[in-house]
Amino acid sequence: MHSRIRIKLHRQSAVNNTMPAARTLLIILARNPVQGDVKKRLARDTGSSEALRIYRLLLQHTAQVAEGCGYDYEVFYSSHIPEREPMFAGAKSVLLQKGNDLGERIGHAFETGFSQGYSHIVLIGSDCPDLDATHIKKAFAALEQNDAVLGPAQDGGFYLVGLNNSHPELFRDRTWSHEEVLKETIGRMDSQEIICSLLEPLQDIDTFDDLRQSRLWAPISIIIPTYNEESRIAAMLDRLLDITAGYAGIEIIVTDASTDSTADIAATRPVTVCHSVKGRSRQMNVGAARSSGEILYFLHADTIPPTSFVEEIMQALNQGSRAGCFRMQFDSPDPLLRIFSWFTRFPLPVCRGGDQSLFVTKSLFTSIGNYNDSMDIMEDYDLIARIERQTPVRILEGTLTTSARKYMQNGIIELQSHFALIHLLNSLGASQKKLVSYYEKHIKAGDAK
């Protein structure tokens, strides 16, 4: 790199929080979201349908960033201008890209912006999930002191380029989509004595490896054992699908032992449905055997995890945890149930249970022998005890919501007393036969134990 290039790494504190200048323009180069036309390298591994879904996520994220910046912005589409574009509702203009290659299209977009009288223009693509409004503001702040700004992509390209004047020669007659793109661009700026500032590097998504390294990737298999849940399975799955829609790599597996239409209802959703003999331990093992994820997340059908559960699980794993659960609350305002819920933040065996859900790495789950198929009751406590011989079960900050239906059917004090006695009998070595006999005699249950 020649000495003329002034490289500055802008930090958070350098951002000017004042209102953006009137003659600044953000340009977004976007591909029309058509299956088979977007993320072709990614589609080699994910298939074109999933590649399209991921691109839509990236496009939506880009739109949210643009809407949140406060700058004028224009969108340039690759093949046609959509008749309706609610995603970019605040765009000053929606235009069509022109040019035979990416360089010509970038140059044309800049020329269009400068011809409208804008003095500082920043151009971005639509495939960088870590881009946020801060990066855009940093870029415009850099243009106050420099001729140009670049946002380096970790694959050797750039996710952002900003200019104070039109320089089509920077982008003409060159090749793209290789690891020297950024270096070549800086070299051209150097030859034109264009002073450039660099932002922090970010990861864009072009390939499956890029996706796996991004915050969108969450290789979680959610396993839900069901028994006669036809009245609630649709709402539960719809909520779960909504929470997980912003990620890639997640699968939902319903392992059903019902005599009603639970499986048929579940099969109308984009989930895997498999059949099993009744019993949560057996059903969850069947689901684990069908799973492809690196992380298993066992979730009861009457429980809704916190909206942040994917982020919290992935963060915990990145921090070294191999297993964990969430705090719990009931879908009832009863004061006693609120007290019971409060205790689920403590790492005490009596406060643990399957209602809190459980995530565990698949390698750990396999190494300790899965759930004990011979257990019809207390299988969660048995598994957690075996996990904790290997690693702590981390209680995450999020709070899930579980049904209070069993307490409503049996009485709050009565049911909690029965649970306490079952815990005591189990700790004293009572057989599964005795525990199940006690449960069936004293506790009304419409679901699997």
Largest sheet: 8 strands, mixed
The CATH superfamily of the largest domain is known as Spore Coat Polysaccharide Biosynthesis Protein SpsA, Chain A
Spatial arrangement of strands, main beta sheet: 10-9-8-11-14-13-15-12
Number of helices: 16
Percent of sequence in beta strands: 15-25%
The total domain count is 2
Q: Structural class, from secondary structure content?
A: alpha/beta
Number of strands: 15
What is the alpha-carbon Rg in Å?
27 Å
- From the coordinates shown, what is the CATH architecture of the largest domain? Alpha-Beta Complex
Question: What's the overall geometry?
Answer: elongated
Q: Which CATH class of the largest domain applies here?
A: Alpha Beta
- Low-pLDDT segments: 1-22
Oligomer: single chain
Calculate the terminal CA-CA distance, rounded to whole Å.
67 Å
**Averaged pLDDT:** 92
Helix content, binned percent: 25-40%
Would you give the CATH topology of the largest domain?
Answer: Spore Coat Polysaccharide Biosynthesis Protein SpsA, Chain A
List the topology elements.
Blueprint: E1 24-30, H1 40-46, H2 48-69, E2 72-77, E3 93-96, H3 102-115, E4 120-124, H4 133-143, E5 148-152, E6 158-163, H5 181-191, E7 196-198, H6 208-212, E8 220-226, H7 233-244, E9 251-256, H8 262-266, E10 272-275, H9 280-290, E11 295-298, E12 303-304, H10 309-318, E13 323-330, H11 335-342, E14 358-361, H12 362-367, H13 379-388, E15 394-402, H14 405-410, H15 412-427, H16 432-442
Parallel strand pairs: 1-2, 1-4, 2-3, 5-7, 8-9, 8-11, 9-10, 13-15
Antiparallel strand pairs: 4-6, 5-6, 11-14, 12-15, 13-14
